[in-house]
Every structure is written in structure tokens, then in C-alpha cells.
Amino acid sequence: MKLARCEHPAVGIFWAVVDVAQDQVTPISGDFRDWAPGVAAGRGISSVRLAGPALALSKVCLLPPIEPINRVVVAGANYAKHLVEFGLNAPAQPVAFLKAYGALIGARDPIRFPPLTEELDHEVELVVVIGTGEIDVENPMACVLGYTVGNDVSARDLQRSGPPGIGMDLFAAKSQDRTTGLGPWIVTKDEFAEGSPRLRLTLKVNGEVRQDGSTAEMTWDVGQLISFVQQRSSFATGDVLFTGSPAGVGMGTGLYLKEGDVVEASVEGIGTLRNVVGKKPQPIESQT
């Protein structure tokens, strides 16, 4: 089952069940937190109450499939070949941090080019959607609602700008407004084999493949990442977890994003984000 967060001029913002073949979205009644636990528990379409007639999928705006009240957790350093691009050794445990909600954009929205960076980079990722706040660290996959696609766009020069001895400035690098694609929808976990999914991830820029990897290459799988984060800061229903990116990013190849680039991030069995990089504004000069 595909679940999307949509916007329509006549309806406003709503969650819906998506039927791509029929070009339809059918609105869901009630709050996400009311019906998501049932879906995560495997009760499928019976967990949701449909409300009103179907709308054309082609006529709605696909929003990031996360409510503004929820958190965006990002796990980094989770693909060995990606670490080689950074000249880093593999850490002994997962690394996680928070991304600002304001950094998110939908599946077809433009990527804002932040004026402070010259090194705008891409990172295709499998993103986990948490379906219940009841997390069992011994059975972490039980809390998963499903999966979506992420493009963790990063400002690499800002990432390196942290003071010596302090470390990387991940806030500046990863939370730039309206840069990070998320969507186009959530595909529920029952659509995949049991356990941590093994899916192909690709990212193209203007049709050229820049990243091509598999979630099978992750150092820590989905369950291990959920357990790690949960023991440090509890998940809530509707939170999302980026799980890391394979090799091929601009920091490794020297090919950074430019104005007008068409960026397509895809995860097998889920879908594709297609976002165009916007025009870079001039930075505001400081007043003296």
C-alpha cells in the first residue's frame, strides 16, 4: 500500500491511499497517529477509514510524507565505500543527528540553492517511517510503518567549516531551507521481504548516473539503526529515519550540483524524487 501526504486547492492538506495505476489518491479520515499504528502492525487497508471521493494523483501536490510536529533523524557513515570518499575510517557504532523540518521538500519541488555554499551535494537514501511510539529495541522492525525515498542534500563546504577541535558543522550542512527531497509516498513494509530491505538506490543528475548502490551494503541495518537511536532519544509515531547513502556523492567525484540540474533519486520498489536545482541567489553583504 502506498500512503501520501497531499495538498489540493479544494481539499487542503490530507493523507491518502495512492493508486498509481488508476492515477488516484483517496483521502484518509483521521489523524496519522490514530491509524498508523494499525498499519505498522500489519492490518493494512482495514486500519484506515477512507473519506470522500478519489482525486486525480496528477492534480495533487505531493508533500513530504511527515507531519510538521515530527522529527527527521539522519544516520550517517553507514556505507563503507561512502566513507572512503571522505577519507574516514569506519566508526565503531552508528552516527545520528537531527535535520530541521524546514529543510524538507516534496517529490517535485525545486531544490533551493543556499547562497552560503559553493558545494551543493546529493545523497540518495532509504528512509524509514516510524508507525508507532511503542518501540521494542529487541524487535525494532515491528515499529516500522514503511519506507520512502530521501535525498539528503548537503552543503559540503559548510560541513567542513566547524572550528578546529569542534568537528563538522552538520547543522549548517544538512538543514539548509528547502533542500532535502522526501517522498513521493510511503510504501508499507508488507510490500517488502521480512527484515531490513535490500533495495537498489540510484541517483541521476541530468540523466547521468552519479550513485548506484544497494541497502544491502549498509553497515548497520534498519533494525540496528532504530535500536541505536531509540536508546538515545525516543521515536514518536510519524518520525522518519534516513539510513545513509552509498558512494558516488559530489564530495567524492568533484561533481557538485549546479543551477538547473535535474536530480532524480530513486529507491527500488518505492519511487523517484525529481527535483530541479534552483537559481543561486547572491549572498547578502554585511552592513557596515
TrEMBL record:
One of its GO terms (biological process) is small molecule metabolic process. The keyword Zinc-finger does not apply. GO terms for molecular function: hydrolase activity; metal ion binding. Residues 72-277 form the Fumarylacetoacetase-like C-terminal domain. Keywords: Hydrolase, Metal-binding. The keyword Methyltransferase does not apply. Belongs to the hydratase/decarboxylase family. This is Hydrolase. It comes from Pseudomonas putida (Arthrobacter siderocapsulatus).
